[in-house]
From TrEMBL:
<feature type="region of interest" description="Disordered">
    <location>
        <begin position="627"/>
        <end position="649"/>
    </location>
</feature>
<comment type="similarity">
    <text>Belongs to the GMC oxidoreductase family.</text>
</comment>
<keyword id="KW-1133">Transmembrane helix</keyword>
<dbReference type="Pfam" id="PF05199">
    <property type="entry name" value="GMC_oxred_C"/>
</dbReference>
<dbReference type="InterPro" id="IPR012400">
    <property type="entry name" value="Long_Oxdase"/>
</dbReference>
<feature type="domain" description="Glucose-methanol-choline oxidoreductase C-terminal">
    <location>
        <begin position="549"/>
        <end position="683"/>
    </location>
</feature>
<comment type="function">
    <text>Long-chain fatty alcohol oxidase involved in the omega-oxidation pathway of lipid degradation.</text>
</comment>
<dbReference type="Pfam" id="PF13450">
    <property type="entry name" value="NAD_binding_8"/>
</dbReference>
<dbReference type="Pfam" id="PF00732">
    <property type="entry name" value="GMC_oxred_N"/>
</dbReference>
<keyword id="KW-0472">Membrane</keyword>
<dbReference type="InterPro" id="IPR036188">
    <property type="entry name" value="FAD/NAD-bd_sf"/>
</dbReference>
<keyword id="KW-0274">FAD</keyword>
<keyword id="KW-0560">Oxidoreductase</keyword>
<feature type="domain" description="Glucose-methanol-choline oxidoreductase N-terminal">
    <location>
        <begin position="249"/>
        <end position="459"/>
    </location>
</feature>
<keyword id="KW-0285">Flavoprotein</keyword>
<dbReference type="InterPro" id="IPR007867">
    <property type="entry name" value="GMC_OxRtase_C"/>
</dbReference>
<protein>
    <recommendedName>
        <fullName>Long-chain-alcohol oxidase</fullName>
        <ecNumber>1.1.3.20</ecNumber>
    </recommendedName>
</protein>
Amino acid sequence: MFTVSFSDSQRQTLTAIVDTFVASLDVDEEAKLIENTLRVPGSSACFDREQLVRFAKTSGSSINVVDKIERKLPLILTPQQLRDLLLVINLLDYRPASILMTGHWKSFKDIPRSERELVVTKWRKSSFAVFRQIYNSLMGLSLTEAYFSHDTELYQGLHYNGIQGGYQHFKQQSDYQPIQHERLKMIADEEVAALSAVTFDVIIVGSGAGASIVAAQLAEAGFSVLVLEKGKYYHQDDMTPDDDQHAFSTMYEDGGIAPNATGTVNVLSGSTFGGGTAINYLACLEPSDDVRKQWAEKSGLSYFNSPQFQEDLSRAADRIGVSTDNIVHSGPNQKLIEGCKKLGHTVKTVPQNTSGRSHHCGKCYTGCASGIKNSTTNTWLKDAASHGAQFLDCTRVNGILIRKGKAVGVSCNVHHSQQIHKLFAKRVVVAGGALHTPSLLKRSGLSNPNIGQHLRLHLASICVGIYDQATHPSQGALLTAVCDAFENWEGTHHGFKIECFTQGLGMFSGMVPWLGAAKHKETMLRYRNAVITFAMMRDKDSKCSVQYDPYGKVDVSCDLSKHDEANLVQGIVEMARIHVAAGARQIHVSQHPIDSFEFDANEESCVDHPRFLAWIQSVQSQAAPVPSSGHQMASCRMGASPKTSATKSTGETWDVGNLYVADSSLFPTALGVNPMLTIQAIALHVSRQIVDSLCSNTKMAAKI
C-alpha cells in the first residue's frame, strides 16, 4: 500500500474545500440554525443552546479532516485515481485553471466562503459529468470524514442520549439474550509451511454465503477442506459494534461505499471472514416465481424452476434460522409501513436469520456482537469446522494452479506476507463474490468471454424523509419491512422494491444533499427524525461489467439503460410519496439539479399538495441520480453453453476442469431481492456436484 503526503499548497486548498462543506457558520447562520432546531418537537430535550453554538462554529479543518482524508486515500484509491484527485486540487490553486473551474481569477483557497459555496453548487448542478464527479468526490470525502468520528466537537454538537442506538440500545432491552459462539480456529503463521505438503480434497476461496455452504457440505461428506479468505476473522468478542468508522475500514471493500472510476455507480460490499453475511441487514427473501421461470428460460437450466431449488432454499433457510417471530419494527420501518398502507401499497414483513429471537440492533452492519444473527461464521462454517475443515484468513489468492486443463491448487500470499505459497487440492472452488471471482479467474488465464460480463448490481436510488416525530434510526431492527408494490410496475418483472437503509451519521451526511454548509448542518441535527429508504431495482439491461485497472484494483463499468434509469427516477417518486403519506416534512433526494422539498410550517403533509406535485414533476423531468449497489451478481453466470455463460450447470467452469464457482456470480440475471438465501441454495446445488465428482473419481481409482 502506498502513502499520501499533501504538499503545503495542496493542504491549503483541501482545507478550503473541507471548510466549504463543513464550515464555521457566521452569527446569522448560527442564530437561524439554533432557532430552527429548537422549534422541532422534542429537540430542546436533546440539545441545549451552548451545544448548538459549538456545533455551528466547528469547521472541518478544526477537527483535522484533512489529516483523515490523507490517511484514507490509500485505502480507497489506486495511484492513478490519486493522481487525478491531486490534479484537481492543484488546478484549483493555479489561477488560469481556477478561472475555468470556479469563474474566479484567484485560487480556490482565496475565494470567500459564501462564493466558494456558489462554486461547488454549480459543480453539483453542472451539465458536465466531470464537474459533478469532482463535486461528488470532494463532498463525499469532506462530509464522511468529518462525521464518522465520535471524538470530535462536531459529533458532540450532534450528540444526545440515544443517538448511538445499535448494540448499546439492544443491550438495554429486557429481551436481550445474547448467544456466545465458540471462536473458529484460524491457521497460525507457524502452521502455514506444512500446508504445502498436503493435497486437500477441496480448497475454497472465500468464506461468505456460498463458500461456507460448500465448506460445510464437503467436510460433512468426509472430504478435507481448506477455506482461504482475504479478509480478517472477527469473533463477536473482537468486534467494535456501533463504531461505523472502524467497521467500514476493516470489514468492507475500499473503506465502505465507494464510487467506480467514472463516478457512474457507488458500490458497497463486505470484505471480512463470513463475507457479506457478517455485516448484512439480516433480510432473507426467496426469489419470486417469475424470476425462477425467467432464470430457467434464460440459462436453459431447469433447476431454477424445480422442486429441488425450492428444497435447497428451504434447507438453507432452516440452517440459518429464517423466521418472522419476535420481529419488532423500528421507527423507520414503521414509517415505511404507515406510508404504504395509507397509499394502498402492499408491504410485508421481511424474515430475519435470527431463529426467531428478538433482535433490536440498528447497527448490525458493523458486526453482530450479540451473536444472534446467524451469519456463516455462526452456522455453516461452524458445521464445517466440526467436521475438520481448516481456515486461513488474511490470505490473498493470486491465481489458480492449472495442469493439463485442470485446477490443482492455488498460489497465495498468507497473512499479508510477500512470500508466495502454493497450496494443492483435487478441486478448487472460487466464491469471492461477483466482483472478485471474475478477477481471479482472469488472472489465472481463463478466457471465456462471459467472465466478468453481464454484471447485475441491484441499482438503487436513495430518498430521505425528515419527520417532526423522532424515529431514532439506529434504535431497533435494521430492515424488517418491504414494499413490493412496484416490482412489476413496468410489465417485465424488472421493477423495484422499497426498503429501509438505516445508517449512522457518517453515511447519513453524504446521503442528504449538500445545499450549503448551514443548511446541511441543520439537516444533520434532524438525524433523530430521519428515515432513509432505498428503491432497489431488479436491473434489466444496463451494460455493466467487472473491470480491473493496471494495479489490479477491481472496478465496475456501468452504463445505465433507459429502462433502468426510468426505474431509478420512479423509485424516488414513489419513495417521496410514501414518506409524505407517513407525515414527512422534508424530502431529500440525490438528483443533482433537484433541491430538497419542504412543507411550510402552516402546510399539512399531503401527497396531493400542489407544491409537492410540482416538485414531483421536476423530479420526473430530471435524469436519474448516481445509483448505489449493495448487491453484485451474475458476472460468471451459470448456463447451458459456453457461448452465453461462464460456468456449466454444475458450477464448474467451461475453461478448466475441477474448478468451480459458488457465489452470486452464478446468477443468470439480477435477482430482485436480498440475495443471501438464494446464494446459499445454489451453493447447495454446486456442493452436490462436487461431492459426486469426487466420489466418482474415488470409485474409478478403486477400480483401477
